[in-house]
Amino acid sequence: MSTIGIAIGATGLALILVFVWMLSLSIRKKRLEEERKQREIAYRKALEKNRQKEREERLMKAESGHIPTILYLAKEAERKNVKEALYWYNKAAELNNVTGMYGIVRISQRMREDVVLKEKARFWQLAINASEGQVSAKYEVALAYFHGRGIEKNIVKALETMQSAANEGFINAILFLGDWCQSPDNFDRKPEDAIYWYRKAAELNSSTGRMKLGLCYLEGKGIAADHSKACYWLERSAEQGNNEAMYHAAQAWIDRGSSGNAVAYIWAFLSAHFGYEPAKALRDQVGSNIGVDSVVGLQALAKPMVKKIAAGTVSKHSIIKALNKLYKRGVYIPAKGEVEEAELEDTPPEVPTDEEVPANPPEQPVQTDGLEKLDFSHSSFNKS
């Protein structure tokens, strides 16, 4: 019995020792697991801290204008936060980065219901086209800066962009700058600078540029008044079929010497015939002063002019010379070989760089000088 008891006691003791050993192993395992978890938590915290620090550095770098970092943040945000992506793409676009511009356009295509974003995207698409050499897009970009369409209004940048388009010979931009130089909304307006731009437009065969140059001579805006040169430029424009220029030419000749009203009637008649509404009242007013017989004769004289202007076959100075000869006028005509655009300076007026330029330029309708031919195929001589 004693041997069996000893054996049982030994077995029990062994079992107790095994249990204690297994318990210690379990406790040690739990402690090691806890330590591992604590290390992982500490590692994650350190990793997160490093990531946060890295992001802060990236943000600081991006805000300072570093393009690659801006684009990295934009691309990263595009997958989960579109608004943040737009912020960064917009920042890159404002730094003249084409990738940023494309980013705004791309996101706008996924958010078609956002009207404001659509307007921004339209602006940046124009900016992309301008960067690729489309001068008409450059002009539209300048207008957007002037009026704050799809971009914050920036008159200085607008003027720089507009002058760049004008220097490439884009008529709309040249005329806009001429108008801007004498606009009441331009706090630093210089009418004499308008002459430069109107002359440049006239040199490029713009009928509107010639008309506006003529009006400057007529009214003495930015240049000494000169009736002869005013009539020359107005009538050169009228020869191109500009019905408004015809109207102003008529106004310039009213009560001007013994034959002034006759010339005025011819231009008023032509202007009214080609659809310029204000000319109808002027035509009738001048007609009532010169009498029915004169009106009939002048209309007969104007018929060949109507046909040639409508057909676009008026040769340079032909009408001006005909009226000069018929009425013994002294309207200025440049001598053969003389440059019509004399006094045109080589250097354009400086663009202001003062960021405080306050302005509300008027809406500028798109001109089509040199882009479309006048079509009077549906006109009728008897209608007007």
Overall description:
This protein is mainly α and 384 residues long. The protein has 16 helices and no strands. The longest helix is centred in the first third of the chain and has 62 residues, at 2-63. The termini are far apart.
| Secondary-structure element series | HHHHHHHHHHHHHHHH
Q: In percent terms, what proportion of residues is strand?
A: under 5%
Tally of individual helices:
16
Largest sheet: none
Instruction: Estimate percent helicity.
Output: 55-70%
Mean pLDDT: 84
Structural class: mainly alpha
Count of β-strands: 0
Rg (CA only): 39 Å
Cα(first) to Cα(last) distance is 145 Å
Shape: rod-shaped
Low-confidence stretches: 354-384
In short:
It is built from 16 helices and no strands.
Write out key terms for the chains shown.
16 helices; 384 residues; 68% helix; single chain; rod-shaped; mainly alpha; disordered C terminus
How are the elements arranged and paired?
Blueprint: H1 2-63, H2 67-78, H3 82-94, H4 98-110, H5 115-131, H6 135-147, H7 155-167, H8 171-181, H9 191-203, H10 207-219, H11 227-239, H12 243-253, H13 260-273, H14 278-290, H15 292-311, H16 318-327
Helix pairs in contact: 1-2, 2-3, 3-4, 4-5, 5-6, 6-7, 7-8, 8-9, 9-10, 10-11, 10-12, 11-12, 12-13, 13-14, 13-15
